[in-house]
Amino acid sequence: MPITVTATTRRAAAAALLVTATLALTTSCHDGVGRKADAAATAVSPAPTPPSANDGDAPPPGPDGQIACTPEMLKFHAGAMPRRSHRMLLTVTNFSDRPCTFAAQPYPLLRFGDDRQAPLPAIEASEPPAAVSLPPNRTAYALIATSAAGPDGKRHRGRKISQFGVALRARATPTQVGLDGRAPVRVDPRTATVTYWQSSLAATGKW
Which residues have C-beta within 8 Å of that of residue 6, sequence separation ≥ 6? Predict the structure, then answer.
């Protein structure tokens, strides 16, 4: 008996073919884990945004637009001052290509041996008329009075140190600075003081 193909049968067969073709097309556009292979191959990630000066713990720019000086911008040197007893000199040179300022923290925060110890107090009379700014390849200076005479005129000998910690802002991790020549210097942290940053070596002479 001949097989009669009804309209209903033809519609069912066409629908089945359409489903099969759709599944084949979908499978060809996905990889084995369900991601679109073509889209993954042509996707372009946006360019990363460069970090700004205010990211993380970076200090903000000063009022004049200059950034605050950071240890990464500076070369440190320290050592006893020839022919000046109980005096040590700290210098920092800006080797970066950007000017920076000490306006936010106008004197170095120095610690000798114990990070829990408060930093040395500043010699208030040494504050310059304006905070020191440091152009590239320029140097700033701070003089350290390693001890002070007591009421009896005597000085505590303190202890010998060959390096000490320098921080440029509060709560920053101190940078350890070794003395030039590694010749130890006696420092009494209880009575030692430090000047504000000075823009010239001559400006440290009165302290």
Answer: none
Average pLDDT, the chain: 76
pLDDT at 60: 60
Radius of gyration of the chain (CA): 35
Which residue, 104, 65, 68, 88, is CA-closest to 177?
88
Q: What is the largest CA-CA distance in the chain?
A: 133
Paired with 89 in beta bridges are 79, 143
Residue 29 has pLDDT above 70, yes or no: no
| The residue to which tokens 């996707």 are assigned | 43
User: CA 40 from chain center: how many Å?
Assistant: 37
Task: Of 2-11, 102-111, 165-174, give the lowest mean pLDDT range.
Answer: 2-11
Distance of CA 86 to the CA centre of its chain: 32
Range in 6-15, 112-121, 169-178 the model is least confident about: 6-15
Distance CA 26, CA 23 (A): 5
Q: Are 60 and 160 in contact (CB under 8 A)?
A: no
Distance CA 119, CA 108 (A): 9
Residue 156: phi and psi, rounded to 5, are -70, 140
